[in-house]
Design goal:
Blueprint: H1 4-14, H2 21-28, E1 29-36, E2 41-43, H3 45-55, E3 59-72, E4 75-86, E5 95-106, E6 109-117, H4 119-122, H5 130-140
Parallel strand pairs: 1-6
Antiparallel strand pairs: 1-2, 3-4, 4-5, 5-6
Helix pairs in contact: 2-3
Length: about 140
Amino acid sequence: MDNHLISDFVNNINSLSSHNIDEKLGQIYTQEIEFIDPVKGINGLDALTDYFNNLYKRVDHCHFTITNHINRSDEHAIEWQMQLKHQKLAKNNEIVVDGASFIRFEDEKVCYHRDYYDLGALIYERIPILGSAVRTVRNAF
């Protein structure tokens, strides 16, 4: 598989907004997409579209920068840094979170996508009281 698939994938993901999810996801993912992230596992494009529509409701900006890419045939491991501005998180200040994805292509569309990232850094540390508890535990080790 050519690396153009990954660059096209990242460009499409970076162009997502609450206004174009229905159109864009069908260009990126197969109908039978299996998507897993630290929040939930999803099967099928319709369920993924619903999930992304909900996620992007209050997103002002979301951008992924690829920091490393390992390619083996139709399977790809990608390390990334996400810059996110969300109206309900961090008082709408930009959040930066590192993560990784494992992606598999079928007929030039993504058929399997699994994300790994620190959910605590993204969400839990941003909740009053819970955030200070998470940071205390994190700093204890």
